[in-house]
Amino acid sequence: MAQNDAGSLWDALNATAPRANRCIWAAHAWIALNELIAGSSLSGRLEDLRGRSVLILTRDQLSAAAALIQIDGVARRLVICTPDLDLAHISFVMATAEVDAVVSDQPAHLFGALIGDRFMQCSTTITPTQALRGAQLPSEWILFTSGTSGPPKMVSHSLLSLAGAIRSGGALGGALVWSTFYDIRRYGGLQIFLRALLGGGSLVLSSAEESAGDFLTRAASHGITHITGTPSHWRRALMSGAAGRIAPQYVRLSGEIADQGILDALRAVYPKAKIAHAFASTEAGVGFEVEDGLAGIPASYFGQTRNGVDMKVEDGSLRIRSTRTARRYLGAQNAALISTDGYVDTGDMLELRDGRYYFVGRRGGIINVGGLKVHPEEVEGVINQHPRVQMSLVKSRKSPVTGAVVVAEIVLKSEAGESDAARGVDTVKSEILEACHRTLAAHKVPAAIRIVPSLNVTPSGKVARPNA
After folding, report:
1. If we measure between CA atoms, which residue out of 98, 101, 100, 121 comes closest to residue 109?
2. What are phi and psi for residue 442, nearest 5 degrees?
3. Is 0.90 topped by the overall pTM?
4. Which of 6, 106, 214, 232 meets the CB 3.0–4.6 Å disulfide criterion with 12?
């Protein structure tokens, strides 16, 4: 870990927790970190998990956080289950990850014969304990990748690879209060969980049951200083009218393309904050962060080692090499995570324009219009520049002539949604089409635009795309 030498998460927390009254706050409960390192959130003896492959299968982020802190360094493998895992895939996960123990905040009987006597209860209630942890083991961390359907794809990390981009909080660490729209059982949220703990700060967790407005109000009550989310998370926050309730020092976007429209909108709301967009993925780890307020990546980031990371563009795709990448896929999916030269192919496509690389979309998300390629995200980037557009989704529609055409669904900002604004909406559509014709090739221009009240967002905080 960069500037963190502890062998486990518990060791690192034990070294930093006494500095301040540090906590993890959830919507319904909270944990004081100094109490957690002196107590236990597990119903059984921690030693019963020593050397085992442990599936952490919780309904609640807070109980998952407590379990991770206590089990890392004891178990040989931590398998972090995402909250949306289909129970039909638990058998696959357990077999692939060789799970021989399950920790959950749910009753064991819900899982039937899948778990049997390999079960240990966890909760957000901390009880005093005198149990010794014994010798530390280098626990392997197993994470589910995003964007897959069917049985989950799993990759192997270590605490060292997960924390490779994290630096110690130093004297200010105890004053930092992190928060994130992400769930900490996914890579993006786990990064913020680790940043808060290893950096000496506190953490405010989001909740799937809360509205964006309620979450931001609660985050404000804890004085959050640093907050992260996807561009879709931030667009929803801006739509809620509650974005101004927080006054962060640092705002970061990742997980989707950060176009200039959303960067400018956040700058207007948080004029004193550092606003950055970053690239990270479960497989490739944390790649880079851009802090100049502009969309895209400076070309100078490529062709040299920056902060221990090498990046290149090959066949149009971003490729990353560093000690932060995952080690391998688990099980039969163990094919092509890392190339022979050590790079991970992210599948995110880039184009070089005027000294900056711009994301144009995913390799697998291309729309084929009469043999010509269209990346939906590139078109969305143009649409989202319009001042009355909150967010958009570009997708394909069948065509008897070209096989497919591009169409767009758009959510307008609240002032554009009044019932007497029909003429104004038509004007907006015309202006968007004009901008698309001016900026894009003809086959990329939407054949139709539909104004919708909202767009679906996936559990990982990204706009839900057809067949994604």
Report:
1. 121
2. -55, -40
3. no
4. 6
